[in-house]
Amino acid sequence: MGAAILYPMLVVSGLFMPIASMPPMLRSLTRVLPLTYAVSLLEGIWKGDSWLTHAGDVAALVLVFVVCTALSAKVFRWE
Description:
The chain has four helices and no strands. By secondary structure, it is mostly helical. It starts with a helix and ends with a helix. The mean pLDDT is 92.
């Protein structure tokens, strides 16, 4: 199940091809996926950018973390 989500997300995250060269529908999809922000952050840090330059990427990843943590706390049961 995880691979079925991860691999397509890798393809459209901008890791293998630039987001600007994608069709408009895929470009809008990339703004929803958290891996896009992770790729952008890692590329920026690799180039020597500061963390403050990518504050939006960090904020998006923190938001995804908070939402997923709250959802898992609500759904998960030790039964």
